[in-house]
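ugh ok fine here u go
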Amino acid sequence: MNGRKQQLLKRHRRNKRIALLGALLVLVLLGVLVAWWLPPLLLVLGWVVHEAWFADHLFYSPRDDYRYDFPADCLSVPARLEQGVLRVDAELDGHDTLILELRLEATWLGRWLDPHVLLGGDRQDFERGVAGRRYLNLSGQNVDGLALVPRFCRIHGGLRLHAMRNPDYAGQRLLIVAPHADDAELAAFGLYSRAAEVAIVTLTQGEIEAEHYQRLGLGKAAAARLKGRLRAWDSLAAPLWGGVSQARCVQLGYYCLQLPAMAAAPEQPFASRESGESDIRSVRQHNPLTLPADDDGLPTWRNLVADLGAVLEHFRPEVVLTPHPELDPHHDHVASTQALLEAVAACAWQPQTLLLYANHLHDNDRWPMGPTGNGIALPPAITALPADRLWSPVLDAEQQLDKAMALALQHDLQGPLPLKKRLRRSIQRLLAGRRWPASGEDEFFRKAVRRHELFWVRPIGR
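structure:
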């Protein structure tokens, strides 16, 4: 997490502690003044209520407006609802990405059940208690005449359609920068599985948080080494399911959560926090090209930037996919894009375009909200982002199933849910009507397998 998310989480935990202390004081008074059995009963009921309705990590008010600025080449036109049907008086041919700006207000039921809008055969969900400006993703839909049916919310005020025109980037040479194994699949499996020419470079082994493997009788360091080997293998093997051969996949082998420290001290090596390893060559034996850091195996920022430069020179991509530096707060994701931009600046080969993706958010751990298979509404942007053009290609049912199976190949997404999360899901299914997919238990099977993929388009050099 970066500093902003750490601050938000710290404030959230502080407020929760204050609320818990107040509740405990009330329970003690009830036990003393009313009946001894009342506090235990209320504790159980309070825990159920918390798990059903207050367990989401939402670090902003659902009444806040989302704030998006769109680029100058975006067509922005008024829209209107006529008897629940959307009407747009504009020529939209050639505009592939369509975003509808509107204001939503939750009904009283929308404080307890997830407010959402049905649009054609799609559904897009929002925060409980929503009351502000939001953005529906209509990409892939015939918008004029599209039925919009709000559930547990109301549509207020005027509507505005933002239409953007993009080339199909699947026809250009692509390079996907994945900080960890599975980031490429989460963000862009639908895109890369139909791309004419694509390469994937994974920056880290993903060896930390390996407690699950200690059940095999391994110590902490050995479990971390095993997890690093497995995830490094995943980064080379899983893309084959999407038609990308191992000859077009590169594993750099740097260590999880060490990239920011490397950036701060570019010449200093940073070993793994958990595996005890300090030589990144341990997972590089299957790479299809020789890289600068193969000489000394040192996990330094200087080596990382040089490796990325070599990858750029070898695959010569026109378009590079990388984490959104303002939207995705994961420390390794931010540092990965920083390293890429430094490599581009020092490289003879110059890509033309960045496609930015976000697999994590600062302030909403549930986005994209709602069940799997539905569209991706724009994420919360309480502070306005740079005015990048959006591109949101559509995945059909077969592509979505293939994407789910690509995620199922990832070792890090295969572990069983802890008991607490299983209980939470059962409570939310019963009381809040939430549903999870059959394809996998990890939350990413719900969040990533969608009708759309979503990218921010930024010319190199901006």
